[in-house]
Amino acid sequence: MKITVIGTGYVGLVTGACLSEMGNDVVCLDVEPEKIRLLNDGGIPIYEPGLKEVVQRNVIAGRLRFTTDTRYAAAHGTIQFIAVGTPPDEDGSADLQYVVSAAREIGRHMTDYKVVVDKSTVPVGTADKVKAAIEDELKARGVVVPFAVVSNPEFLKEGAAVEDFMRPDRIIVGAEDEQAILLMRALYAPYVRNHDRLHVMDIRSAELTKYAANAMLATRISFMNELANLAEVVGADIESVRVGIGSDSRIGYSFLYAGCGYGGSCFPKDVKALIRTARDSGTDLKVLESVEVANDAQKRVMTSKIKARFGCDLVGRHFALWGLSFKPDTDDMRDAPSRELVAELLSAGATVSAYDPVAMDEAKHVFKGVEGLSYAPNPLAACEGADALVIVTEWKEFRSPDFDGIKARLREPIVFDGRNIFDPELVRSRGLEYVGIGRR
Ligand SMILES: NC(=O)c1ccc[n+]([C@@H]2O[C@H](COP(=O)([O-])OP(=O)(O)OC[C@H]3O[C@@H](n4cnc5c(N)ncnc54)[C@H](O)[C@@H]3O)[C@@H](O)[C@H]2O)c1
């Protein structure tokens, strides 16, 4: 099939690459010429395990191309995926300007039947806006061209995006047009050969399903974070509680880890947007509003623990920071808890030496011009002369560190473990003080 993917970011690039992997003829469009130039030169603008190989294989096979030419992109795909960003607007709602502008580009240039697919995470009712934008453009051109709008939200996880796309838990298709449903079924059939995991529903339910999924996961995290804070006060251990409740098959183990708050490009903005959608519809999502408040507070928990140990004035203090990305296996730092932590430590007068396996380039961009933050070439180097080690991202390479090496380099042998990656007893037995989240 001929496919166009509009927006070549984390979702668009993975979608384009994985669709070409099954033999489809894919064109990826982006408005950023530098991104397209890099891709055409064989580079990859993001870190995502396995993605580079899929992209290179399909570019060589001639099934995957990158362009900034909107006319060419609109003409190419019978299926036009919109995978542009939907960042939060000032009032928390999803900013739809990129989605609408992508829709307008399609309407401006299309000459034959198109299935326009919203893959971006968009609020209920967006498909109507996309339809109206395309109709507007067709009207301005004085032409009638048939098209259908479909909602097909993406559920991939950064860090496992290729695997998630190639072997999805489910594919949600919100559509009313029979021809569009047939095309979507045919497109996704190779990904669900084992058993059918494609669910067709009405468009509004599909749009809401994506937000409901992220809201549920964010709720589990905030729930555990609040319980962790309680565990500290009452002398319980949140890890024991996690195992205790996760073993209940009605609850399960996923997304029950206490830590220093959720971040990333999806949960914070999607929780905000869903709360906004509810308010605009005259309803309150009281549970979700609390989830957001709890997470904002949790992002400050590490600084509170550090200040409780060293005092509020951190002038002259220096901290080693392990992990900058919002989670392991990605270089994405959007809304990462590390950003708030670094800002708070610096504003209290401390300096920070940070290390991350893949997000240092992104961090240099994010923290450009920020004084007091330096970057270390490896985890142990970050600890050199630091007052304490603070762990913010649970990268695998941090899990079994050289504790003797850490202790030898720190001025005070303290580990603040914002992701509970260590066994407190083990760390203490190596002569280090241990401060986790909700740990005994
Ligand atoms: N990142 C994730 O893990 C993830 C997972 C599921 C869903 N989503 C959703 O998918 C959408 C995209 O997220 P992302 O992380 O890939 O964003 P991103 O910022 O990485 O990529 C968006 C891309 O769209 C491009 N763009 C903007 N307007 C354009 C236009 N008119 N024409 C062509 N290109 C345009 C931007 O230049 C950018 O490269 C969002 O709605 C997000 O919520 C993201």
From TrEMBL:
Sorted keywords for this record are: NAD, Oxidoreductase
EC numbers for this chain:
1.1.1.22
Pathway, per Swiss-Prot/TrEMBL? Answer: Nucleotide-sugar biosynthesis; UDP-alpha-D-glucuronate biosynthesis; UDP-alpha-D-glucuronate from UDP-alpha-D-glucose: step 1/1
The family database entries (SMART domains) matched by this protein are listed as:
UDPG_MGDP_dh_C
InterPro entries the record matches: 6-PGluconate_DH-like_C_sf (IPR008927), NAD(P)-bd_dom_sf (IPR036291), UDP-Glc/GDP-Man (IPR017476), UDP-Glc/GDP-Man_DH_C (IPR014027), UDP-Glc/GDP-Man_DH_C_sf (IPR036220), UDP-Glc/GDP-Man_DH_dimer (IPR014026), UDP-Glc/GDP-Man_DH_N (IPR001732), UDPglc_DH_bac (IPR028357)
Give the source's domain of life in one word.
Bacteria
Keyword Oxidoreductase carried by entry: yes
Q: Where is the UDP-glucose/GDP-mannose dehydrogenase C-terminal domain?
A: 320-424
**Catalytic activity, reaction form:** UDP-alpha-D-glucose + 2 NAD(+) + H2O = UDP-alpha-D-glucuronate + 2 NADH + 3 H(+)
Q: Which family does it belong to?
A: Belongs to the UDP-glucose/GDP-mannose dehydrogenase family.
What protein am I looking at?
A: UDP-glucose 6-dehydrogenase
Give the species: Aromatoleum diolicum
Its lineage opens with: Bacteria, Pseudomonadati, Pseudomonadota, Betaproteobacteria, Rhodocyclales
